[in-house]
Fold:
Amino acid sequence: MPTAKRDSVASGGRLDAVVVGAGFAGMYLLHRLRRAGLSARVLEQGSGVGGTWFWNRYPGARCDVESMEYSFKFDEALQQEWVWSERYSEQPEILRYLNHVADRFDLRRDISFETRVAKAHFDDAKSRWTVTTERGDAYSAQYVVMATGCLSSTNTPKFPGLDSFAGRVFHTGKWPHEPVDFTGRRVGIIGTGSSAIQTIPIVAEQARHLTVFQRTPNFSVPAQNGPLDPKVQARIKARYGELRRLGSQMPFGFDVQFNEKSALDATPAERRAEFEQRWAHGGLPFLGCYSDLLYDKAANELAADFIREKIREIVKDPKVAALLTPDSVVGCKRLCSDTGYFETFNRSNVTLVDVRSAPIAEILPRGLRTERQSYEFDDLILATGFDAMTGTLLRIDIRGVGGATLGERWAEGPKTYLGLTTAGFPNLFMMTGPGSPSVLSNMVVSIEQHVEWIAECVANLRARGLERIEATPEAQAAWVEHVNEVADSTLYPRCNSWYLGSNVPGKPRVFMPYLGFPAYVEKCKQVVADGYQGFRLA
Ligand code: NA7
Structure:
């Protein structure tokens, strides 16, 4: 992996664009901007490419979108040559893929690694941004694109005594690069979200004892992962373009086939058959079992009951099964996709502790104390999630017109136009920002759509001799209202989730992603067709 070096464009260098982040988004954007003839530099805090897949190295980390879809489609040769080994790829394979992409398109020469951005300030008179790194290097750029990822700022709750813990502490979202061995160790894990659900079965196999501290049980469906048959892969590749197109026409931008029927119109036997078939198929497509699953509480409850029954069938101890059974809405938090999660609680070396009825009071040097009792362990895993979607953007000191900070503008929650731009911050783009489908879609598909929209926009401005694009406050207000209306028509706002920011104390409760990839793409196209409607160009 390349190491940090002060590069020649820093300290006064002028660029067309600075891109923050070298994950899927920053990498493809760099490629497209270069192709459009722009000088661009990517600033990346990690020592390598990969973003999410660079940091989330915890055992069992895996994508919940199938490999054949969770990959770039922009280059035919790339999508034909890369061979995936499993239906759902594990983190190391996705990271290898992204390193391959970096080599293939010679991206590294325009990426500064181990470079954390501290500030991005807009100079109104010059219509340029100055981006300053924590090392103090400054870049002057006409455009800044925040390709900082939706789940890139980890959330570590302020547990009293955390610093006093004498053993090793890990966060799933910032896992060490060296392999971590839990053999013979007593391990405690806090959290039962997606990351925990993936890592618990693996850690349980290694550890002497694993204690799982659960505040809220989660719905999870087996991933039904396995090796990807080369014949299946070849068949997909033979009509890749067509399949990708079909995927992008679906609500989540990938192959989640939605049954058009209402769960309430089906007979109990039909419903059972549908749920069983979805369970056997595995993973997120379970959400497509009925058209009203995400809209009607009664319909949702039928699917919820099916999963609850499965949990009771799998988990032998009825008390443990009851604790693992969610009472919330299926899909309201991101549905988890697992390999042997519920089965893990049948192991004699795994204990489940409910920290909803007795919250964690403090971390002790050799374990933790809940309001009920103390537990001992040698290593602590925090699977406590992320300050999602806005966390990383707000940690950077971003100042737009008149020196207004993004933090001030977003004090009551993020406000964007199309999740791509925000009023008062000209020539600043966000990749998969709040108000875009982002985390409610196949991220790679959403990323490609945003990259292509931004690259086309910048080329369009240049061709017309324009220097500046900025969302109007009116277009932004209308978009924010629309995003909320769409969310309010669903069951998503009915539970606490990181989609709503409710996992981070003090964060405004606002539903951040936009539901409906195809409608969103149409809107973005229409905005362009109408001469960048909702934007002020100069
Ligand atoms: P999540 O889904 O936000 O899960 C975090 C977990 O940590 C969740 O079970 C939380 O319980 C728990 N948590 C957080 N704070 C506390 C405190 N203070 N006490 C006890 N438990 C706590 O993050 P993940 O990393 O698992 O997944 C994020 C996304 O990454 C996922 O949706 C996929 O898209 C990939 P809570 O539910 O808040 O009660």
Remarks:
- The chain has 16 helices and 20 strands.
- The CA atoms of residues 270 and 300 lie 15 Å apart.
